[in-house]
What we know:
Chain A is an alpha+beta fold. Chain A is built from seven helices and five strands, in the order ααααβααββββα. In chain A, 46% of the residues lie in helices and 13% in strands. The N and C termini of chain A lie far apart (45 Å). In chain B, the strands form four sheets. In chain B, strands 2-1-3-4-5 form a five-stranded mixed β-sheet, covered by helices on one side. Chain B has a five-stranded mixed β-sheet with strand order 13-12-16-14-15. Chains A and B meet through helix 2, helix 4, helix 5 and strand 5 of A and helix 1, strand 8, strand 12, strand 16 and helix 18 of B.
Amino acid sequence: MVMQPASTELAERTAAVISELKNLEGPLIPILHGVQEEFGYVPQETLPIIAEALNLSRAEVHGVFTFYHDFRHHPAGRHVLKVCQAEACQSMGSDAIAAQIKQKLGIGFHETSKDGAVTLEPIYCLGLCACAPAAMLDGEVIGRLDADKIDEIAEEIRS
Amino acid sequence: MSVTIYIPGDSGSLSLGAEKVAKAVEKEIAARGIDARIVRNGSRGLYWLEPMVEVRTEAGRVAYGPVSAKDVASLFDAGLTNGGQHKLSLGDPEKLPFVAKQTRLTFARCGITDPISLEDYEAHGGLAGLRKAVSMAPADIVKQVTESGLRGRGGAGFPTGIKWKTVLDTAADQKYIVCNADEGDSATFADRMIMEGDPFVLIEGMAIAGLATHATKGYVYIRSEYPHAIAVMDKAVKVARRAGVLGKSVLGSSQGFDIEIRSGAGAYVCGEETSLLNSLEGKRGVVRAKPPLPAIQGLFGKPTVINNVISLASVPIVMDKGAQYYKDFGMGRSRGTIPIQIAGNVKHGGLFEVAFGLTLGEIVDEIGGGTATGRPVKAVQVGGPLGAYFPRALFDTPFDYEEFAKRDGLIGHAGITVFDDSADMLKQARFAMEFCAIESCGKCTPCRIGSTRGVETLDKLKQNIEPEKQLALVTDLCNTMKFGSLCALGGFTPYPVMSAIHHFPEDFRPAAVAQAAE
């Protein structure tokens, strides 16, 4: 199989992430996190670079990359909204909340809006189980979601 | 005199607007020219009152809550800085019944101190356990932890001291302490709260574990869903290193110990200890078969203590006050205290640390105050997504590892989710299977395939396709998963499924659906 050679810029940025974390014990997951932070997702072209630097096979790196829910195969929207769908939130109506959010944003779970404004994802527990239903918008936590808070979220996404 | 105002920085409080409150308080302080200092403490765990703002007065601390940003100006008008009366006044927080009824050993400082101030930590009894441990022989530390009766608070309930002894007795050039902070179970947030509210107690517990077993390196594996906890732990480790608590010499002793914080990557199964070890090594978070035990061949094949956050955070008090002190709390073989996390559809949700032995009914009805919606309680799931659903008829079950096991349940990480009478138990059973299918690591067949077949079978039941046959099938499937899976994910998913079927049979008879179709 002929691999598309990675662009020089991408290779350099990937190498910089690797060199910073390579000396950790078990560096692969920190590196994947680092690459995702750098590019917003983990570009396929970075995987062979990581594999070579860590003396792993491409299959091993691919296997780890695809195992974890966090690592993105494509860029996300400008905002990422994660809505908790675990039991404690279910007991407070997270199903209905998720339905309202999907309707408001016009997308379903694991989808990004056409204008690239937002990616919507389910998440299984934010540890806000006494403040249910809960969500996380770009790393900021939101508890006791209701119609008003959904409106605020939608407004922030559009701004 | 400078006034100290406490506004929690705990993510539960942040989710309810604590950041906006803090900004508003800052603004008022500046506008009114008040000499005041804001401390971003952890949460005391009374989440229906968060954000709970406290002020230190000459007569002690005075609390207000739940405070929103728009209340702040009126709080200052009412004389907040002197503990003045306001409609949100709660008085002395220690006298609130939810606080006064607790026995806070592990969470003694959580919500009270500045989480990343080591001075504050020491002023409130911190480091006393580690100071004692530094002058003790490793075997004596292990003995004290064993005698305290402390059992793994992650859910398995394995005696902590025994695990440590195996690591101490196994010779190796390198040993590790791994803290399992992959708190993925819904209804649980004790690990998050202690990491955000009192991170030094975990660091101290890990350092003691290091001294007890000759381990020099520790890892805290924190789930990526907890960015605030990761940030606080990162800061606290740096502070501890600068102060000589961590580093080449622990508090001037001959042994070194250091800690590194690692983030998970969104895999529930990594809360299983062997999956977590694989993940730390940079592999897929696939479960390992045991033996070998992690205590003998753990991280990178080296002897490893792997303990839950709360187990490790309970060690400092055991070392400080002695094994007997800790052991005197509790019942049967469940010794000490347990931080019960009351969650879901409940009026007074939060963290309640208490000696083992309260009944489930006392926890839900008296401490939790019943449902938030005001409707009757239908079911309570105890122990997270892998825990059983308990009906009201079993509310006399005491909170104790063995008592829950006797009733085909488990206390797990001590999180309980309350559901009101609108809950559909068939839907909950299906979710348990679905969640297992999403999160299965794929290594063993009963979990990987059984969970998907379980979802399909319950869907057929819902559609009233040969219901008796589906129920028999799902029961058989649960039996296979329970006894044929490698770890608790596949092995315990049958608990919520079978308990729902057993205790709420009316929800599994699709009579209403059938009638509607006719």
